[in-house]
Amino acid sequence: MDIVNFLGPKLSALISKDVLPCKGLIRFAIKDAGKNPNSLTYKDINEIVNNELKIRLDQVNIPEIDQVILELNEILINNQSVFTMSIF
Amino acid sequence: MSIAEILQITVYTVRLIIAVALARYAIKTKGKNFWWLFGLYFTSGIFGLTDFILQIGNIFALSSGFRFICMVLFIHYTFYLDRNNPTLYFLIIYVIFGVIIIIFNVLFDFINPLEVYDTIASITQIIGNLIIFSWLIYSSFYAFRNVKNDDTVDDWVKMRYKLVILYSFIGIFTAIAYGTMTSTEINFYNILVFLATIVYQFTQLIAWVMPKFLRNFFNRHFMAHISSSKTIDELSEEEVIIKLGED
User: Fold this and answer.
1) Domains of chain B in sequence order
2) Scanning every residue of chain A, which has its alpha carbon at the shortest distance from the alpha carbon of B232?
């Protein structure tokens, strides 16, 4: 399951920006966390969203970051089985 | 060897094959959910085969409670992290069910075998399966509904949800059928149960040990969509900052 592809459009809708830079931001956040994007667990993704991605969003001056992170968390919780089920 | 015996061996072997695949996923991702599912299939396969080889009877029943608990924890770690869940209640229920099954199906049967003890154990098994599979169907269905129209989720993952829902329904049917079966003679009902058992094992095998060619087949539309939408390369850090700064 490609987390960048999955979360990119959702982040884009939340902050009203293009999908491509949003995917880039998520890609860099994963890199900041020192994780391999191909073997992320639900917990890893949760931590990255609440830490590295939050910092990245702050660095590019996105308004109402806490609300964005809260909504991303909700999306993650509601769709957690996409990550816990998509192992092969 | 009778058809029923061949079926029994096949069922337990399939469960062990699934267990090996699940152990591989669990090691690869450190996913707790797959360890619990591994526990379910491995215990089921090993206890079933032991029961079949030794012919002592009731060895399989010993693991019932543990298998139910494995299933509860699999569902918990797959669908209910960081959200309200009924896991604790289910755990309590299945510890009680496990004890009832051991007492009536193993202990009492050993001390003083009476049909009523087997009936109580069978009813407990049926209710246990009905509850756990219903919870799995409910959880999978709602998770699937969330991603059904999401084109960023691989189609093979959506197919895994569907297969889990399908085998859970068949699981309820076979649990009731085996729990209420009165004879092993060949008749329409028993043939139906036999076929359901084969489909049940096959769907579980496909769901959890999905071979690569099948995964690619289920994913063919998703891959075509991804390839057609990949027109621009990944952006550099600088480009990301510039793009996000634009209104």
Assistant:
1) 3-245 (1.20.1070)
2) A20
The pLDDT score that the predictor gives to residue B233 is: 56
Q: What angle do CA B214, B220, B226 make, to 5 degrees?
A: 135
pLDDT of residue B160: 96
Instruction: Count CB pairs under 8 A between chains A and B.
Output: 94
CB contact under 8 A, A85 and B215: no
As for the ipTM of the complex, it is 0.90
Q: Which domain holds residue A57?
A: 3-85
Query: Out of B79-93, B109-123, B226-240, which region has the weakest mean confidence (pLDDT)?
Result: B226-240
Q: Once rounded to an integer, what is the mean pLDDT over residues B152-156?
A: 93
Of A46, A60, A86, Cβ closest to residue B157: A86
Tokens of A1: 């399951």
Q: Label residue B162 exposed, middle or buried (CB < 10 Å: 0-12, 13-18, 19+).
A: middle
Looking at the structure of chain A, the number of domains it has is 1
Burial letters B83-120, b for 16+ CB under 10 A, else e: eeeeeeebeebbeebbebbbebbbebbeeeeeeebbeb
Q: What angle do CA B97, B34, A54 make, to 5 degrees?
A: 120
Interface of A with B in 57-86 (CB under 8 A): 59-62, 77-82, 84-86
Higher pLDDT, B246 or B34: B34
Q: Report yes or no: A38 at the B interface, CB cutoff 8 Å.
A: no
Q: Could you write out the DSSP letters of every residue in B57-93?
A: SSHHHHTHHHHHHHHHHHHHHHH-TTS---HHHHHHH
